[in-house]
Amino acid sequence: MPLYTVSHVGNLRVCVVMVGLPARGKSFISHKIVRYLSWLSIKTRVFNVSSYRREEYREQPSADFFHPDNEESKVIRDQANIDAIKDVIKWMNEEDGCVAILDGSNVTKQKRATVAQILRSNRVEPLFLESFCDDEAIVKSNILDINSTSPDYSGKPPGYALEDILTKIKYYETHYEPMDLEDEKELSFIKLINVNSQIIINKIESYLESRIAYYIMNLHIKPRYIWLSRHGESQYNLEGKIGGDADLSERGMKYARKLKDMVEKYVPNHDKLEVWTSTLRRTQQTAQFLPNPKKQWKALDELDAGSCDGLTYEEIAQRFPEDFAARDENKFEYRYRGGESYRDVIQRLEPIIMELENQENVLVITHQAVLRCIYAYFMNSPQEKSPWMSIPLHTLIRLEPRAYGTNVTRIKANIPAVSTYKEKGTSKLGESQNSAHVMAGEVITSDVANQ
Ligand SMILES: O=P(O)(O)OC[C@H]1O[C@@](CO)(OP(=O)(O)O)[C@@H](O)[C@@H]1O
């Protein structure tokens, strides 16, 4: 069953129309919204206006292309906006798209009125989202990000974009009209001032629009890490049983002690770290040696295996062969009898994601399925793959959200544990981790996922 049923979003189709000068983080915000709504199974897509302009005008335009008196380029730029909107409507009509993000600048009232009129006449609700920013430090750091990620500057040396974008900003400023509570009071809009130091919200009406507004309000761009860990190996893990509320095994307890040392060694400002656990014993026992403030969340409890709780995968395959096969076939959608599916877990994790977006220094100690869902959000992983991701025991994971992706570092504690990973098509579990020999120190691996 889809997470957001008709009663939630109805036939509502929303186009989030970005507004703002260059280097105001509009593309960053656009991609974050897509990631969040897609994770919640709402069909969402970005339509980047400058990529339409790029099709027409293949050459890398100099800043003069954006000069307010350049009539020829104005035609190209206006047409790019119209072409992008046409594609938004086509995508919604033909592919049942639900939320589109029009990632352009839409800096004049006139342009916004035209966009609103076209969208409404096609039964699409416009939601304007302005990023207003006059904090030079933020603008400069955005320019550096653009320099390294925008196709307009690919192949150019670092620093090249600075002068070019500053000129472009100067041209745009000549006709920029920030969103106005008087003249534009009929429009639904969210206005972010210097990221989210002040937020103005006007005429947000539908459930979907309010979810987007609430999410945007929780975003921040301060550099930070998010720390994740499964609980230490449990007695049930040792026996290959799923679910339950077992205590830690001896090795699990060793990990709990070691986790304290690892936090001291690897977490900057670890004295300010907040530790979140589920309400189950194995996560709380794993957190017990950490001196930090702790919060228990029911939402972090493991996926409820219903009538299979306490069984091994082999027992499930024997007693409920059809269910066992159905879960392998579609692990994301499969809901245990009297229990949950991965889709259900994502729904209850939404408040956790909101909080994590808002926080700066948190360690989440939780379970295999729950961690896969949280990890999938930050790594932008496709739904069908996320329930099969490997999240081994006795490993501290560091996520570093960046403007256009998330860096991941895994620090293995070097304490042996069983594997709880079951491949598709078998009821056997994988090989134990680190069982052959114990290595001298922690093992660190890094990875990066792009939006
Ligand atoms: O979705 P799958 O791959 O079955 O993984 C979820 C399972 O992981 C387990 C371990 O097998 O998590 P946990 O370590 O938190 O106990 C089970 O309790 C849970 O049902």
UniProtKB/TrEMBL annotation:
List the active site.
Answer: 231 (tele-phosphohistidine intermediate), 302 (proton donor/acceptor)
Q: What is this protein called?
A: fructose-2,6-bisphosphate 2-phosphatase
Q: What is its EC number?
A: 3.1.3.46
Please state what class of enzyme this protein is.
hydrolase
What is the organism field in this record?
Answer: Ogataea haglerorum
Looking up PROSITE patterns in the UniProt record yields:
PG_MUTASE
Q: Which domain of life is it from?
A: Eukaryota
Q: Does the keyword Transmembrane apply?
A: no
The UniProt entry's GO CC annotations, sorted and at most eight, read: cytosol
Q: Which family does it belong to?
A: In the C-terminal section; belongs to the phosphoglycerate mutase family.
**InterPro entries with a match to the protein in the record:** 6Pfruct_kin (IPR003094), 6Phosfructo_kin (IPR013079), His_Pase_superF_clade-1 (IPR013078), His_PPase_superfam (IPR029033), P-loop_NTPase (IPR027417), PG/BPGM_mutase_AS (IPR001345)
Task: Say yes or no: keyword Hydrolase present.
Answer: yes
- Cite the entry's keywords alphabetically: ATP-binding, Hydrolase, Nucleotide-binding
